[in-house]
Structures are given as C-alpha cells and as structure tokens.
C-alpha cells in the first residue's frame, strides 16, 4: 500500500486538497479527526489532558472545551508542547489503526493528512510528501475570512507553527495554493497522475 503524505500550514488548503483526493476515490486518514477522537470524554488522552490542564478546560458535559484549550496552547509555547507530547502517542496509534483498516480493505493508495507530519516525524511513513504552500498574505486573509479572527490572532496562529517555507523545502511535491480554486484543481490533476504512477517520480528526483 502506498501512503502519500499531505501537509502544509494552518489555512494553507490541506482540507481542500484532501477533499479532492476523496472526490477521486482515494481514501484519506485525517489526523485532525483522529485528534478529536483521542480527546473524547473518558479516553486515555482525555484523562492525561485533564490531569495536566485541570478541570477548568472541561465543559459542563465533561467534554474538553476545545476553543478554550486552543486559546491556552496558542498563547503559551510550553503548554502547546506539553499538549502535543501528551497526545502524540494516542494520535499516532489512532492513525496507525485507521491505516490498518484501509490496508485490510485492500486499498492500494491512501493519503495521510497530518498538519504536524514533519514535527511528529510521520513523514517517514509516507511517499511522496505533498506540501500545500500558500503565500503569507493569502494565508492570513483566508484564515481571517474562514475563522472570523483578527489579523493579530491569525498571525499568532501562523507563527506558532513550523514555517511553511521550511515545510515546502522538505516536500517531494509542492502545491502552490496562492491562486484560485481553478489553479489548485489544475495542479491537483497533475499531482494525481504522479501519485498514481511511481514511474513518473524521477521527474521530481524521487526514488521509488
Ligand atoms: P487548517 O490547517 O486550519 O485545517 P487547511 O490547511 O485545511 O486549514 P483549508 O481549510 O483547506 O486549509 O483552507 C483554508 C480556507 O481557505 C478555507 O476557507 C478554504 O475554503 C479556503 N481556500 C482554500 N483554497 C482556496 C483557494 N485556492 N481559493 C480560495 N479559497 C481557498
């Protein structure tokens, strides 16, 4: 089974590209979905986070108040690191389980959509690695429009992540999503050909 890595920066267009893969019948394992599941009330991840952050981060229902936790970790790098460290093992095993289920089903190509593909070293499982890049101004504008946040909030979220240019440098294939959706679709069609045909990978200097 070929596991294609898909990553990028916040608001760079990963989900948009991931939807294109799904629309072309290629299953996607979405790390954000896995991450939501590992924080569900009563799970191991939920218990760890509760022990580290206290009951203040819970809603009356006992579920984690995600926006509140998000606010805490985005303004405090140490807490962000702590949260990542606590949840990383649960997220990795959740992702492995999803990959395994698709392997059992006989899928030949799947996509791993993981925002922290490099940071969590999961890029080692994937080939080719696709990075969805966008220019900084467009990234800021799209993030503000999507989340209804100020430029300051959006910038602090962008700056809390590994630089998108650094991710681009580590990619096998870069999709530049600074243009229109039509532009994106056009690039995607070409990428899809390469993803499906390893014989074309030498064009990217990739070994098979
Ligand atoms: P996150 O990491 O926050 O989940 P993401 O990388 O998955 O973000 P998307 O949600 O796919 O990014 O895209 C961010 C926003 O930009 C969305 O509102 C999306 O509809 C919009 N968008 C993505 N690509 C384009 C494009 N080429 N033209 C216009 N809008 C776009």
TrEMBL record:
Any Gene Ontology CC annotation: cytoplasm
CDD domains (alphabetical): DPCK (cd02022)
Pathway connected to this protein: Cofactor biosynthesis; coenzyme A biosynthesis; CoA from (R)-pantothenate: step 5/5
Top EC class for this record: transferase
Domain of life: Eukaryota
Pfam families xrefs: CoaE
Matches recorded under SUPFAM superfamilies: P-loop containing nucleoside triphosphate hydrolases (SSF52540)
UniProt function note: Catalyzes the phosphorylation of the 3'-hydroxyl group of dephosphocoenzyme A to form coenzyme A.
Family affiliation: Belongs to the CoaE family.
Protein name per the record: Dephospho-CoA kinase
Organism annotation: Penstemon smallii
Taxonomy of the source species: Eukaryota, Viridiplantae, Streptophyta, Embryophyta, Tracheophyta
């Amino acid at each position: 089974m070929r596991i294609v890595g898909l990553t990028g920066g916040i608001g760079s267009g990963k989900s948009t590209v991931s939807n294109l893969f799904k629309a072309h019948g290629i299953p996607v394992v979405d790390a954000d979905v896995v991450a939501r599941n590992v924080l569900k009330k009563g799970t191991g991840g939920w218990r760890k986070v509760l022990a580290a952050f206290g009951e203040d981060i819970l809603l009356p229902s006992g579920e984690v108040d995600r926006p509140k936790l998000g606010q805490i970790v985005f303004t405090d790098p140490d807490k962000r690191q702590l949260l990542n460290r606590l949840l990383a093992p649960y997220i990795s095993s959740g992702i492995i389980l999803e990959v395994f289920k698709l392997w059992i089903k006989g899928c030949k190509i799947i996509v791993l959509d993981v925002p922290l593909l490099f940071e969590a070293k999961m890029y080692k499982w994937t080939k080719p690695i696709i990075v969805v890049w966008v220019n900084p101004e467009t990234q800021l504008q799209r993030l503000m429009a999507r989340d209804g946040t100020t430029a300051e909030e959006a910038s602090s979220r962008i700056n809390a992540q590994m630089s998108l240019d650094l991710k681009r440098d580590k990619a096998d294939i870069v999709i530049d999503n600074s243009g229109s959706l039509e532009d994106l679709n056009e690039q995607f069609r070409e990428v899809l050909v390469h993803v499906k045909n390893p014989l074309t990978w030498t064009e990217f200097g990739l070994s098979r």
